[in-house]
Amino acid sequence: MAKTTSKTFTLNTGDKIPAIGLGTWQSPPNEVYEAVKFALQKGYRHIDTALAYGNEKEVGAGIKDSGVPREEIWVTTKLQEKWAHRVPEGIDTSLKDLGLDYVDLYLMHWPVAVDPDTGKETPNWDFIKTWQDLQKLPATGKVRNVGISNFGIRNLEKLLNDPSLKIVPAVNQIELHPNNPSPKLVEYCKQKGIHCTGYSCLGSTNSPLYKDPTLLKMAEKKGKTPQQVLLMWGLQKGWSVIPKSVNPGRVEKNFELDGWQLDSEEMHQLDNLKDRFKVCGDGWLPAKVFFGDDE
Hints:
Blueprint: E1 8-10, E2 16-18, E3 22-23, H1 29-41, E4 46-48, H2 56-65, E5 74-79, H3 87-98, E6 103-108, H4 127-134, E7 143-149, H5 153-160, E8 171-175, H6 183-191, E9 195-199, H7 213-222, H8 226-237, E10 240-241, H9 248-253, H10 264-271
Helix pairs in contact: 1-2, 2-3, 7-8
């Protein structure tokens, strides 16, 4: 059996994104430095961060001090919605903080532009204009691939059908776990050649998933942690996963995915968990971005 931990997914650009990455959302500064360094030393080759997380400096330091050569590491960061109308400044800020010459993937974090002064939508600007600027970045050498995050079908249709579109997003990073499986959205992305990365793939902190009897029973039977089962489910569904942890034991456990799989019955059981919840809503944004069109 091929090693799951060295698995990659090929993007529409031909680049290969490592299937398992370390997420850093809500990771406190000093802890995230240690987590990134530790994860890379344990074999992870994909680190996910964002301008909005406020931890790019520590993430960059962890990458540098890991001793792993830069060219072996896939680094994803994201343009914050408050910087939507300032794409060149956004990427330069991230690169400076990360201490890197380029990132492998640069995502538009949300399909909305927020005025940093008012907190309302930026006047005379929208995500189409942001994408027009993002499309220019691969030619600069600062970014290898460009993509999006938190795009549902409605906004994807708008973006993909716009006459200014020159580059189809390589990735759509969305919330994906058995209580938010988004089958229609995942299938739509697949048809358009857009790879999905699942965030909050463990259901996030204090997740109701960890009380789910089906999942707990399955994990126990297989001698695995519920987190390992959730990650394997996502990988077998065909998307990359970026579990977040700063706990060394859990960072290591989340990477122990070689030599086993879920069978079709186990996949079916997880596909059919009845509960639904989203970790990340859009209530804090000045515009609605989730329209319930993902199932």
